[in-house]
Amino acid sequence: MTGKAYTIVVKLGTSSLVDEVTREPRIANMSLIVETLVKLRRQGHRIIIVSSGAIAFGMKRVGLDVKPSRLAAVQALASIGQGRLIGLFDDLFRQLNQAIAQVLITRNDIMDFTQYKNATNTIHELLDMGVIPIVNENDTLSVAEIKFGDNDTLSAITAAMVHADYLFLMTDVECLYDDNPRANPNAKPILVVDNVGDLNVKTDTENAVGTGGSAVGTGGMTTKLIAAELATNVGVTTIITLSSQPQYILDVVENIQQTESLTVAQKHEYIQTEVLAKRLPLHTRFLGLPRDSQIKSDRKFWLLHGLKTRGALIIDQGCYDALTRKNRAGLLPAGVVEVEGSFHESECVALKVIPTRESSLNEAEERGHCRVNYSSMEISMIKGMKSSEIENVLGFADSEYVAHRDNIAFPPRTTSA
Ligand code: GLU
């Protein structure tokens, strides 16, 4: 091993594993993926796969061409297909003496911070054993309210959980373009992105498909950009590259090792030159933002992405500034302007901020999340009041705060270094 050893998450969509027409497993491509990942393991890197395909494998097994709309039927298909998917991976990895493990996650499993850390520890233990964990959403038990929804998001969450260095989103286009390359021949590839939030590209939701989104998968470029934002916010550099050429991962990892000490500007230039000279395959690299301290960022990430929000608390700009300044405060009842929706104590709630004094309540923008010490009904009764009045109004005062500062999280606003 010459370069540094990285923790790398590789996300494989259904279209990388299943033929869109015949719905049969793409065994040749899977073999190439397996060979590539075993090479990376032998170079000393720690590898985690996030693999879709359970539902498609299940459909093939029972001879279905069209995905049923009934949730129970989809769940049943996932349970048929997941075993076959892992079985095939195991057959292929076994030829190269590489052990694998199956990890199935639902959002429910990580709703509690201890459980979130526990799932992380299990994956680390597997990596320490030299095993490649293969993660998928536990579709058989997930219902809509607790679903990650797509494996792009799940892969970003997995990468954040294990503090991965790199996340590869393997897809059916080489990279991100500024427009749909299939419709616009002048669409330009975007090679390096410093801050996903600043991107100005047309994506599938705007009906000018930036690319992707096959008949067998659930993702497209939009979910990839969301995943890239999630992952880069916690310091995970994210790469989009072609799933039919998995060996590109080796070239990109080698290039990453060579460019590690370069500044962002130098990286832009170097990657551009190498891609143009065809010494490096076309790909998009979303640079990870600088990491917070690990403990702080774990809890923050979990608050922002591990939990589903129930309702919202509306606060004004002054309160928002107090919650985000260096010695940040907790959220006091006096800071709450309005309560939306219904939730219990300890649930995760969105924090919405009224942008200016002149703005109305419905102009409030969601900026972050918090876990509350009181229910929606209780907060409605104490909002705008001093903490000393809580006991008089509610008959008890579990905390002077509506949310403690450790239970409040906002995504980073800084740009990349
Ligand atoms: N978990 C689903 C499956 O294994 C796929 C979800 C996705 O395509 O993003 O079939």
TrEMBL record:
Transmembrane segments: none annotated. PANTHER family: GLUTAMATE 5-KINASE. Keywords: Amino-acid biosynthesis, ATP-binding, Cytoplasm, Kinase, Nucleotide-binding, Proline biosynthesis, Transferase. Residues 311-403 form the PUA domain. CDD domains: AAK_G5K_ProB, PUA_G5K. It comes from [Candida] anglica. Coiled coil: none annotated. SUPFAM superfamilies: Carbamate kinase-like, PUA domain-like. It comes from the Eukaryota. Pfam families: AA_kinase, PUA. Signal peptide: none annotated. InterPro entries: AceGlu_kinase-like_sf, Asp/Glu/Uridylate_kinase, G5K_ProB, Glu/AcGlu_kinase, Glu_5kinase, Glu_5kinase/COase_Synthase, Glutamate_5-kinase_CS, PUA. The keyword Glycoprotein does not apply. This is Glutamate 5-kinase. The lineage of its organism: Eukaryota, Fungi, Dikarya, Ascomycota, Saccharomycotina.
